[in-house]
Specification:
about 5% strand, 3-stranded antiparallel beta sheet, globular, 7 helices
Length: about 160
């Protein structure tokens, strides 16, 4: 399947859980919730559509950067979801199970926003070169620092 076919076929909850997994699986649960909250906080910009938020160009590198190993693993898991095997076909990936729980809590508004309304984030350790600050974050203070991520509320 092509990336476009996979994206069209996935359910919104699966997209959110896979995005959280790809972006924050090594973070504490608070960090996973925070990434989910950023997705939810972006909904007004994308007509309330979780899939549109996650698939927006240059927003979540896991869906956009085809050279990233994260992207390859993400597509493998996505295809497993589409074959009806879901998390059971992922080799018992406990981080993915946790991200599914977080995604459900975020999309159903059962989890409180722990980011101060952030709609952007980045990880200094994930930047190239390490520690680089993205242009959109320069001169701005984060609304929260959770795990290795810094969260920002931009207009």
């Amino acid at each position: 399947m092509t990336l476009a076919e996979i994206q069209a076929a996935l359910l919104a909850d699966d997209v959110v859980s896979l995005t959280i997994w790809a972006e924050a699986r090594s973070e504490p649960i608070e960090g996973q919730i925070a990434v989910g909250c950023v997705i939810r906080n972006r909904l007004p910009r994308y007509g309330g559509d979780y899939k549109a938020v996650c698939f927006a160009p240059k927003q979540f590198s896991c869906w956009n950067d085809t050279d990233d190993i994260n992207h390859v693993q993400l597509l493998d898991y996505a295809q497993r979801f589409l074959t009806g095997h879901g998390v059971h076909a992922t080799g018992g990936d406990l981080a993915l199970r946790q991200c599914q729980w977080v995604a459900e809590g975020v999309t159903r508004h059962l989890l409180k926003d722990n980011t101060g309304g952030a709609n952007h984030y980045y990880s200094p350790s994930g930047m190239v070169p390490k520690g680089r600050v993205p242009s959109w974050a320069k001169g701005k203070g984060p609304t929260a620092v959770i795990g290795r991520h810094r969260f920002y509320r931009l207009p």
